Amino acid sequence: MAGLVIGFLWQRSKACSVSGYRDFFLFRDTYLLKTVVGMGVGAFAGFAVLRFLTPNEGDFLALLSTPGLTFDTILLIFIGGLGYGIFSVLAGGCPTKQHVSAASGSKTSMLYLIGFYAGIIYFQVVILGYLVAIFGVV
C-alpha cells in the first residue's frame, strides 16, 4: 500500500533528483532542484526522528569506521555512482522517474529499465565474482 501511495505522489510531483541537477547546470532552472533540497531535508528529519526514537543504536559517524571500507571499496562505490549519474542524465532522469514513465506507457523508459535490470543481474552474476577475487570485498 505504501508503494502505491509513494508511486502516486512521485508521479504527480514529477520529482527527479538527477533532472534537478541536469536542469540547474544546463539551463539554470531551479524548479526540479527543489526536489533535491526536499530529499535532503526529509533525510535529515527522518534521521533525527529515528535518532530520537532509538538513542542507543549507535552513531551516524560509526558508518565511517565500517570494517571492509577500504580505499578500493570507496573507489568502486565512486565509479558506480558516477556511472549511475552519467547514464541517468543521458536517459533523462533517475530510475524512479523511469519506473513512473514506464508505468505510464513510455517505451523508451521500458527499454531503459530492461537495461538497468540487465546491468544489475550482470553485476551480480559476473562482475561481483571478479571484485571478490581481486579486492576481497563483498
Helix content estimate? over 70%
Count every beta strand, where a strand is a DSSP E run of 2 or more residues. 0
Mean pLDDT over all positions: 79
Low confidence ranges: none
Rg value: 18 Å
With helices defined by DSSP (H or I, 4 residues minimum), what is the helix count?
6
Oligomeric state: single chain
Q: The biggest beta sheet, please?
A: none
Number of domains: 1
**What is the N-to-C succession of helices and strands?**
HHHHHH
Distance between the amino and carboxyl termini: 33 Å
Question: Looking at the structure, what is the overall shape?
Answer: globular
**What proportion of the residues form beta strands (DSSP E)?**
under 5%
Q: Helices and strands: which structural class? A: mainly alpha
Describe the structure.
The protein has one domain (2-135). It has helices spanning 2-13, 17-27, 33-53, 71-91, 95-103, 107-135. It is built from six helices and no strands. It has 138 residues and is mostly helical. It is globular, with a radius of gyration of 18 Å. It is 75% helix and 0% strand.
